[in-house]
Specification:
The complex is a heterodimer of chains A (643) and B (84).
Chain A (H helix, E strand, L loop, with lengths): L13 E6 L4 E6 L1 H7 L2 H12 L13 E5 L13 E6 L6 E6 L3 H7 L2 E7 L6 E6 L2 E6 L8 H12 L5 E4 L2 H4 L7 E3 L3 E3 L4 H7 L2 E7 L9 H17 L2 H6 L1 H6 L6 H4 L13 H8 L9 E5 L9 E5 L9 E3 L3 H8 L7 H14 L3 H16 L18 H13 L3 H6 L2 H8 L3 H4 L2 E2 L2 E2 L8 H9 L34 H18 L16 H12 L5 H23 L12 H4 L14 H15 L10 H6 L3 H9 L7
Helix pairs in contact in A: 1-2, 2-20, 2-22, 7-21, 12-13, 12-14, 13-15, 19-20, 20-22, 20-24
Chain B lengths: L1 E4 L9 H11 L9 E5 L6 E5 L13 H4 L6 E4 L7
Antiparallel strand pairs in B: 1-4, 2-3
Classes of the chains: A alpha+beta (643), B alpha+beta (84).
C-alpha cells in the first residue's frame, strides 16, 4: 500500500476548487487523495462520497461537477490522456461518470491541477479561464446559445492563443437536455450520465485551460525504460494495425463477427441487420469509409482510432469533423435501420455540434420511432414528422428538436423514462434503459456484455467490464472456458475487465491502449511498472487489482447506495431482452434466460466481495479496503450487510 | 542528419513534442520542446513546427521524436553535403 507522503511523481500536485455560487476559487493538495485512490476518477469518487449529502439531487447547487485527470496523464505513458467527469447521474440519481480523451486533461495537469471540482451554480452564464495559477470566472453571455464549433471559434479568437484547450457544452447542455455531453477539443464527448446537463444547470458554458508547466516522475531513467518497452509492445502487437484502421476496417466486411454479436436493430426488435444494408453503409468506395479524410489520435496515443470525416456528396455535402465510431453504426444506423452513409455521418457530427450524447440520442429517439411504428404516438405528437424506420431526415430533425427543446423535443429532453410515464400506453416496455439511462447495448447475444452493462454503477454503458467473451478480451490466461453466448465463467471475465477499467480511469490510460477491446497493448504488470517508477511507489499487481481497483468500484457502489434505492432488480437487463428472442441470423432464438442471468449475477457479486443475495456491500469487505468510515456511514442508512 | 515529417502519416498525437521535451528537461514539459504541434478538429488541419533548439538528440541512439512516433511520420535522413 502507498505510505503517507509516499508519492513522489506524476501528479500535478493540486486540486482546483471553484464555487460558482459565491465566486470563490481555492486549491488543496492532491497527495492525500491519491494515496487512497491513485488519481483520476478515484479521487472524484472519493470527494463525492465524502462531500455530497444523500438528500442532494443533480440540480441542487451542492451537487459537484468533478473533472479528474489520471495519475499518468501528462507523461509519455502510452495512451495517458483520459479525464473522468463525475457528478450525480441525472438518470439514476446515483453516481454519474463519463470518460474522455483528447488534450484537455494533459493541459490541466500542465496548468498545475490533477482535479477540478466545481460546486454551486452561477446565476448568469459563465466560463472558466485557467491559465496556470491565474484562474478566473468570466462572463459568458456572448457564448450562450452557440453550438460547440462556434463556441470554440469565438473563445480562440477572444483569448488569442491557439494552444488553449476547451471543454464546453452546446445548446443541449444549456437547455438541460438530460443526455447532454461535455465536449472536449470539439469532438470528443464525455457523454454518459448527463454530465453536460449538469454543467448547463450550473450555467457553466466552457472551461478553457492553458498550462505551461511540467510533470515530473520519480525515477526518470527507469520510467523511460518502461515507456520505451511499452511503446515497442504497441508497435509489435499484431492487433495494432486492425485497431488503427478504425471501425471501417472491421465493419466494411459484411461478414465481420461484430455484425452478429454487437448490433441491435430497430430499437431492439432484432439483433441482425440485412447484409445489403451493411454493404450499402460501409462500402469502401461509396459508403462511410469513402468519407474518411484522415485519422487522428489523442495525446500520447499509439493507436489513433478517430477518423476525420468529410461528407463529400449528396445533400449532406460539406459536413466535416472528427468522429465516427462503432457506436455510430450501432446507434445511428442500425437502431433506426438507416443505411444512407452520408446521413449517418451527418447525424453523428450533429450530436457533437449540439453537445448531445450520441448514445442517448440513438437509444432515446429509436424508442420514439418504435412508438410511432406501433401507433402509440402519431404525426400529431411528432410535430408532423413521419418517424418511419430508415427515415434519416426525420432523425436529423428530431436531434435538433431534442437539443433545442422544440415540440416533441421538449417532452423527450426531460428524460425518456419521464416521457414514457407521460405517454403511457405501455410505451415504457419498449424503452431500452438501465437504471434510467437509455442504452444502445446488445444484451441477448453477448452475455458478458449484458452482465457488465446491466451492473455498471453509472447506468447502462459497456465500459465497466463488458467483454465479448472471445479470446480478444479478458485476462491471459483466461479464467476458464467460455465464449460469447455462454453464461458460465462469464462473470470472471467481466469482473477482471471491470477492475482493469477502474485502474485505467484512475491512471488516465485509454482502455483501447490498455486492456480492452483486443489491442492488449498494456498489461497490469505494465501499469505497476509505470506507476512504481513514475510515482515512486512500490505496489504489486495484486495490490492494484484487489485493493485499488476494488476501492474505485466500491466508492461508486456506496454512492449509489447512499443516494438511491437501487437494488438487485436494477442490475437486471431490460425486460424486453428477457422476453423477446433474436428473430434472425446465426443467433436466432437467443434471449436472456433470467435464471441463468441471475446465477451469473450471484457469481459477479461474490467475486466483487458483495452480498450474493442482495448485491449490497459488506462490513468486512469494506474494512478490508480501509473504508471503515464508509461502512459506518452505509450501516447508519441501513445499506450495509453486517458480516 | 535531418528529421523529416511525412504529413500524410501524422495523427497529431503530439507524442513527438512530449518526447522531445523529455530530452531537453528530463521532465514532461511540452513548452520546452523543440517541436510544436497544433491541430484544428473542425477543418482537419495539423500544424507541425520544429524550432532551432533541436539538437537531433545528440546523446540518444536516435532522436526521441522519431523513436516514439509509432505512425512512422518522422524519420531521420542523412543530409547530402556539396563537395565542390
Amino acid at each position: 500500500m502507498i505510505k503517507k507522503g509516499g508519492i513522489k511523481g506524476c501528479l500535478a500536485g493540486k486540486i482546483l476548487r471553484i464555487d460558482l455560487s459565491n465566486k470563490k476559487i481555492w486549491t488543496e493538495e492532491t497527495k492525500s487523495y491519491a494515496e487512497k485512490t491513485l488519481g483520476g476518477r478515484g479521487i472524484n469518487s472519493l470527494i463525492m462520497v465524502n462531500e455530497i449529502e444523500s438528500k442532494i439531487k443533480w440540480y441542487d447547487p451542492e451537487n459537484l461537477l468533478c473533472f479528474g485527470v489520471g495519475a499518468l496523464v501528462g507523461t509519455l505513458a502510452p495512451g495517458a490522456c483520459r479525464v473522468d467527469v463525475s457528478t450525480i447521474n441525472v438518470f439514476s440519481g446515483g453516481k454519474g461518470s463519463a470518460n474522455v480523451g483528447g488534450f484537455w486533461g494533459p493541459e490541466l495537469k500542465y496548468a498545475g491541477y490533477d482535479n477540478l471540482i466545481i460546486i454551486g451554480k452561477s446565476r448568469k452564464p459563465v466560463y472558466l479561464y485557467i491559465n496556470d495559477d491565474k484562474v478566473e470566472i468570466r462572463e459568458a453571455g456572448f457564448l450562450w446559445g452557440k453550438d460547440v464549433y462556434e463556441t470554440e471559434n469565438i473563445l480562440r479568437k477572444e483569448i488569442g492563443d491557439e494552444h488553449i484547450k476547451i471543454a464546453c457544452i452546446g445548446p443541449a447542455g444549456e437547455n438541460r437536455v438530460r443526455g447532454s455531453a461535455i465536449m472536449i477539443d470539439t469532438s470528443k464527448a464525455a457523454g454518459g450520465s448527463g454530465v453536460g446537463c449538469v454543467m448547463g444547470d450550473k450555467k457553466l458554458k466552457a472551461i478553457v485551460v492553458r498550462g505551461h508547466g511540467k510533470i515530473e516522475v520519480a525515477q526518470p531513467k527507469l520510467f523511460m525504460q518502461v515507456v520505451a518497452r511499452c511503446y515497442q509492445q504497441c508497435k509489435d502487437e499484431p492487433n495494432s494495425k486492425m485497431m488503427r484502421k478504425v471501425p471501417f476496417n472491421l465493419y466494411s466486411d459484411p461478414d465481420w463477427e461484430g455484425w452478429n454479436t454487437n448490433i441491435v436493430i430497430k430499437n431492439g426488435q432484432d439483433d441482425q441487420w440485412e447484409k445489403e444494408k451493411r454493404i450499402k453503409l460501409m462500402n469502401p468506395i461509396t459508403g462511410v469509409p469513402s468519407m474518411q479524410k484522415g485519422v487522428r489520435a489523442c495525446y500520447s496515443c499509439p493507436i489513433g482510432c478517430m477518423p476525420y470525416m468529410e461528407v463529400n456528396k449528396g445533400k449532406h455535402k460539406g459536413y466535416q469533423g472528427e468522429g465516427f465510431w462503432i457506436n455510430t453504426i450501432m446507434g445511428h444506423a442500425c437502431r433506426f435501420d438507416i443505411s444512407d452513409p452520408e446521413a449517418v455521418v451527418e447525424s453523428w457530427l450533429l450530436t457533437n455540434k449540439l453537445g448531445l450524447d450520441g448514445d442517448y440520442v440513438a437509444a432515446g429517439l429509436s424508442w420514439v420511432f418504435e412508438l410511432y411504428e406501433k401507433g402509440i404516438i402519431n404525426k400529431k405528437d411528432t410535430d408532423g414528422l413521419e418517424l418511419n424506420w430508415g427515415n434519416s431526415e426525420a432523425l436529423i430533425k428530431m436531434i435538433k428538436k431534442l437539443a433545442y427543446r422544440e415540440g416533441i423535443g421538449n417532452l423527450l429532453a426531460d428524460g425518456m423514462v419521464e416521457a414514457a410515464e407521460k405517454i403511457g400506453r405501455n410505451s415504457e416496455y419498449y424503452l431500452v434503459q438501465v437504471k434510467g439511462q437509455p442504452s444502445i447495448e446488445p444484451f441477448r447475444v453477448p452475455k458478458g456484455w449484458a452482465l457488465a452493462v446491466s451492473t455498471s454503477p453509472v447506468a447502462g454503458r459497456h465500459l465497466r467490464g463488458a467483454t465479448m467473451g472471445s479470446n480478444r478480451y479478458g485476462p491471459k490466461p483466461r479464467p476458464g472456458d467460455f465464449n460469447v453466448t455462454d453464461y458460465r465463467n462469464q462473470a470472471k471475465g467481466v469482473v477482471w475487465q471491470g477492475k482493469t477499467k477502474e485502474l485505467e480511469d484512475n491512471l488516465g490510460i485509454c482502455n483501447y491502449v490498455g486492456t480492452w477491446s483486443g489491442a492488449n497493448f498494456l498489461t497490469i504488470g505494465d501499469f505497476v511498472e509505470l506507476i512504481n517508477s513514475g510515482m515512486g511507489i512500490d505496489l504489486t499487481e495484486e495490490e492494484l487489482m484487489n485493493q485499488y481497483a476494488a476501492i474505485g468500484r466500491n466508492l461508486e457502489i456506496a454512492f449509489n447506495a447512499l443516494h438511491t434505492d437501487m437494488s438487485r432488480k436494477d442490475d437486471l437487463p431490460p425486460k424486453r431482452f428477457m422476453k423477446e428472442k433474436v428473430k434472425s441470423g446465426p443467433y436466432k432464438g437467443l434471449k436472456i434466460d433470467e435464471d441463468k442471468y441471475n446465477h451469473m449475477l450471484d457469481e459477479f457479486y461474490t467475486l466483487w466481495g458483495w452480498d450474493k443475495k442482495t448485491g449490497m456491500q459488506t462490513r468486512s469487505g469494506l474494512e478490508k479496503l480501509g473504508l471503515k468510515d464508509l461502512a459506518e456511514k452505509l450501516s447508519k442508512c441501513g445499506k450495509l450487510v453486517d458480516k | 542528419m535531418k528529421i523529416i515529417r511525412n504529413s500524410n502519416l501524422c495523427y497529431a498525437c503530439k507524442t513527438c513534442q512530449l518526447a522531445c521535451s523529455y530530452h531537453h528537461t528530463k521532465t514532461f514539459w511540452p513548452e520546452r520542446s523543440s517541436i510544436i504541434v497544433s491541430r484544428n478538429p473542425q477543418d482537419g488541419t495539423i500544424k507541425w513546427r520544429m524550432n532551432t533548439t533541436c539538437d537531433k538528440c545528440v546523446d540518444e541512439e536516435e532522436p526521441l521524436c522519431v523513436k516514439y512516433c509509432v505512425y512512422g511520420a518522422l524519420q531521420v535522413v542523412k543530409e547530402v553535403k556539396d563537395n565542390d
